[in-house]
Amino acid sequence: MSIAAFRADLGDVPVEDHPRIVQQRSRDHYWYSPVLKAKLDHVSAEIVVSPRTQDEVKRVLAAAYKHKVAVTPRGAGTGNYGQAMPLAGGAMLNLMNLDRVVRIEKDRVRAEAGTVLEKLDNETRAAVGGELRFHPSTYRMASLGGFIAGGSGGVGSIRWGGLRNLGSILSVKIITCEEGPRALELTGEDVLKVAHAYGTNGIIVEAEMPLAPAYDWVDIMVGFDDFITACRFAETVASQESLLLKELSPCAAPIAQEYFNRHKSYVRDGQSVVLIMAAPVAVEPVLIYLAHYGGEVLYRSDEASEEELRRLPPIYELAWNHTTLRALKVDPTITYLQTRYPTLKHVEKIVSLLGDELPMHIEMTRQDGEVTFAGLPLVRYTSEERLEEIVRIHEDNECLVFNPHRYTLEEGGMKRTDKAQLAFKKEADPTGLLNPGKMVAWDDPDYDFNAGRAWLFQGLEPYAL
Amino acid sequence: MSIAAFRADLGDVPVEDHPRIVQQRSRDHYWYSPVLKAKLDHVSAEIVVSPRTQDEVKRVLAAAYKHKVAVTPRGAGTGNYGQAMPLAGGAMLNLMNLDRVVRIEKDRVRAEAGTVLEKLDNETRAAVGGELRFHPSTYRMASLGGFIAGGSGGVGSIRWGGLRNLGSILSVKIITCEEGPRALELTGEDVLKVAHAYGTNGIIVEAEMPLAPAYDWVDIMVGFDDFITACRFAETVASQESLLLKELSPCAAPIAQEYFNRHKSYVRDGQSVVLIMAAPVAVEPVLIYLAHYGGEVLYRSDEASEEELRRLPPIYELAWNHTTLRALKVDPTITYLQTRYPTLKHVEKIVSLLGDELPMHIEMTRQDGEVTFAGLPLVRYTSEERLEEIVRIHEDNECLVFNPHRYTLEEGGMKRTDKAQLAFKKEADPTGLLNPGKMVAWDDPDYDFNAGRAWLFQGLEPYAL
Q1: Where does the record place the FAD-binding PCMH-type domain (chains A, B) (predicted)?
Q2: Interface pTM, i.e. ipTM
Q3: Stretches in chain B below the pLDDT threshold 50
Q4: Which of A45, A277, A371, B447 is packed most tightly, with the most Cβ within 10 A?
């Protein structure tokens, strides 16, 4: 590969090769994981390329193909599985300049990959009163393309499931990495070929998403003396189809007291909290359930002062991966896991086994017709061995772990890379230049597709009878 | 009681006492049940009173109290448990003149009890793009008050649960039957005191309901060679939070061929059908699932001709109690049951045991966080004994039956009349004039509240810890 020859073919596509800036842009939030941090700290691209149009993306990919330059696509870099870390060096493809909102309709929006999610919602709310069904807690920075390439769900999953569900992404436009790069429009099941594939089999440049009705969501934080009661309340509330919620997350003590810097003054010692975003019509019934479960309202945005509204971050910036982020800011030794607890009993068991070594953080979601306890517990990290042991304790107790301390698609366990997806990489990236090292099945043709354990994205097969 | 004295106290409130008209207005759809038909055919009020304002309702109730006249409230009379049958004669209180839409807000609407549901939706759609979360199949005739007093859910329950869930009814205004009738506003849990209470403990005059976003729902009818495969498809589709549906109902062959007169030409011999209402964004993914399950599209309204759209009733008028209604029109010996099947295996078992004696009709709903098979199977009726046997066969196989061949609240099994509800009747109707004979617990103070078997409305207790 020749970076110089590659660069010469780019014409006036903006590039950046100052080593410090390139190094900075070669990072995502992989440092959430001490394991990934140790493994990936040295990684850097050699050049950052920032196309402004889809035609420029084609030119970049044609040049990469011609000169055999590895290309790692990047949105805002807010992912935390190392998905945007350029393992093979080469070019970092910054897609944030592709930020055109193409079309807003009553029930859907089409936009370019670099569009920031919050900005997109602001436009669709103003135009048609709609917003994305769900978004990560990095909503104010993350891009649409990055969310599709590396996300799975988030704020809104309590109502709408996840990105993996058919119908959650209506269409994705990718550009292939070939001698003559093509634009391909994927719809229906084909969307799953590139969703949560880290850009390994096509560069996402545009997507069409369904819109949910936008509400003036009310942020509520409630407190319980006992974490399991908090979970019981959350499960009951989550099970009511009548209650329109966007977020519902029980966090065990002392998460709020220790890590929610700007909210901690609302929380008493020993209280576990539940973070809630509720549509205005749902607030009253949620508070009725709260009273029955013996909880108390600690904060609600619809009764907050101007000063509070200015000072406090939105409740979703305490939830999902932001819970970990806030803990990390206070205590850099903290990390986390991604888990799923089949029932509340399983949550209770793990809490009893691991106690404060694993401050529990649950995200209530709906998946495949059921209310589920998705876990994002914090981990007071001591060693990689102990982390593996904690994973094993989960598995021994029939709790699923999607390991966030792995940077490949397969080992992370979020997605099963099946044959259809590998086949699509052969078509869209025949020489394997896109985000090399992230799809094990590409590098190891004998890879056993069933080797992993639990998958959030199950590939294309479950849709067959 | 003196009807003449009662009438004299009504002033200019419109009344009707022509025996044939009174008899006509003393009927609901109780004749769905041959059992109720035999028991209630002779029932008639003596006078129909049709107040035009809430003040006139108060005047009517004051006069009824003074003269000890039984009062049975009535909306459009589309209920089919005999709930609007005036067992004790007296006055039929026709509320259809109370049809003012009081207030439309972005996410809720407040209207008087006599407002027809379709008319209400038309107004809220035009004003704020919202519609009721769910409605009965009698949408074009039924009133808001009647739906709350006698309904449980319906079209939309696949997404929003049922009326019994906290938050499904925001507020109900009732008028008491006392010397000086009072207007009481019930909110929160108190709503459950009068929801599905047949007007036994207060006359509903106004209600506030949350709105769901309105879509241009697409009517789809699909066909399968095998009913259980149709159910499997329906269960899978129902379990996808990403698929925005309003209706999803598998009907076994030969229901469509024999009873769906205007749709039967679309259906091949032996095909079971699934009736679907899908938001435009959900159509494509639903059809992907359909293909995987080997089903075929028989009709879709978004590709129908003008002529078809004119000729065919909306798909919801094939579903819920309209399935029975259409069968009854063709074969007057048919009746139905209301059941719940815990799993598809249970559906399969009952179908295998009862075959064509019980042409199976399922409504997929979401209740308490789970996708459920709500059954409204047709019954080829032969005798009351055999009907009871069919009920027993269900119960012996762990399938719930909410018996629609009973006219009291308790025996129908839709609602558990608990002590709080009985207490409320004592407050709102101290002399027991409202819809006498429908609340067993009123007439029998020793009634065992736990005597019934299955309740759809569980009363107020489950909300306690």
Answers
A1: 40-214
A2: 0.93
A3: 453, 459-465
A4: A45
